[in-house]
Specification:
Length: 400
């Protein structure tokens, strides 16, 4: 099923519309991991994601079928990729999104000139409605991943990587529906079969892992991960076949590990990366992919993450690495009690991030109060010392 020539043609078809993003060598992570680590920064791509590649290739290849416009079902990066592509080519775009899609996503898609229709409560609802509108209005439907032309467009990522640096040992790719890794694997194996292709899924949305295990497309009951770009309940029939034939390995990462990956990109590489884009680094940092002594390319698939999510992710990432904790402490409800607690914490060299003082809890005896206090810490040893000291002085319970 090798699509080497199709992907090469896709690259030359879309190249004038996309940013060419050279590989970024990370000194920081290379030194830490005793490896050569490169990032393919698709978070800096137009619309903030690799998705523009597949959308562009599909629409350009079938431009004669797009006279009445194009339609897609998506609330994320695919929506913006299709909308941008259509606007660039002067074509009408209709995007079907769930009724409760955050307005920031709705407005971002509208900003690219698309008409947004809010419908249903799930992607499946959106997908069916989009197909119906496609037939009624003769709109060309662009699938987010299970389409050979979309897959060929996504594979242009690997074309750029290997034509810049053919001497790599492995490439690590986030996996949702499977469009990106299918295209990457197809090109990589056509270029050099010895290069490993490794996929990373969120443990809470590991549809491709389950499907490969059972040898058929498995529909998950939920895909509850904050890594929205890979939160897919059901992979494609086509993408499953590509992965069965050409993907060497697939691993999963937890929500905490993904959050740590996002935090590491911010702190170490000064890059804003969405959860899906951070999944490959998360897997490497968690020791789930061997990189020591190897040249590894991590595909940073996107950077579309909103500010409120970044705040939550940073806190989660700091908690995962022992740099943040929250405790509940019972104090005497007398003047100076909180000051004394603050003094103890100061001597422990922890930084107070937030304090919530609760006096009206019915479970607390009269004369006492509860303080929920969040602290910035220096690691697990520091947390252990803090808990040991506070427990010797107060009734304390660790919350996070």
């Amino acid at each position: 099923m090798l699509m080497f020539e199709d992907i090469t043609k896709a690259y030359f078809r879309i190249r004038k519309y996309i940013k060419h993003l050279p590989l970024y060598y990370s000194n920081n992570f290379s030194e830490r991991l005793e490896a050569d680590i490169f990032f393919k920064l698709e978070n800096l791509q137009r619309t903030g994601s690799f998705k523009i590649r597949g959308a562009l290739n599909c629409i350009l290849k079938h431009e004669d079928k797009c006279q009445n416009g194009v339609i897609a079902a998506s609330a994320g990066n695919h929506a913006q990729g299709v909308a941008f592509s259509a606007k660039t080519l002067g074509i009408r775009a209709v995007i079907v999104m769930q009724e409760f899609t955050p307005m920031v996503k709705v407005n971002s898609t509208k900003d690219h000139g698309a008409e947004v229709i809010l419908h249903g409560e799930s992607f499946e609802d959106d997908y069916k409605h989009a197909l119906q509108l496609s037939k009624e209005q003769k709109l060309f439907f662009v699938h987010p991943f299970d389409d050979s032309d979309v897959i060929a467009g996504q594979g242009s990522v690997a074309y750029e990587v290997l034509n810049e640096n053919p001497d790599i040992d492995q490439i690590v790719v986030p996996v949702g529906g499977g469009g990106l890794i299918s295209g990457v694997a197809e090109y990589v194996k056509g270029f050099d079969n010895n290069i490993k292709v490794i996929g990373v899924q969120a443990a809470e949305a590991a549809g491709m892992v389950s499907s490969l295990s059972e040898g058929r497309v498995v529909s998950l009951s939920t895909s509850a991960t904050f890594a929205e770009g890979i939160a897919v309940k059901k992979v494609g029939e086509l993408t499953l076949k590509h992965c069965q034939e050409h993907v060497d390995e697939l691993v999963t990462v937890t929500e905490g590990e993904i959050a740590f990956g996002v935090l590491e990109y911010i702190e170490r590489a000064k890059l804003v990366v969405e959860g899906a884009g951070a999944a490959p680094l998360a897997a490497v940092l968690a020791g789930k992919i061997d990189v020591k002594g190897k040249t590894t390319v991590l595909v940073v698939s996107g950077g579309n993450i909103d500010v409120t999510t970044i705040n939550r992710v940073i806190n989660r990432g700091m908690t995962t690495t022992g740099r943040f904790m929250t405790v509940s402490i019972i104090l005497r409800d007398v003047p100076g009690a909180l000051t004394s607690l603050s003094t103890v914490i100061s001597k422990l060299q922890a930084n107070i991030h937030e304090i919530v003082h609760v006096r009206n809890d019915m479970d607390i005896p009269v004369g006492l109060s509860r303080v929920n206090i969040s602290l910035e810490t220096r690691g697990y040893d520091h947390i252990e010392k803090i808990m040991e000291t506070l427990s010797s002085l107060y009734d304390v319970k660790r919350l996070v």
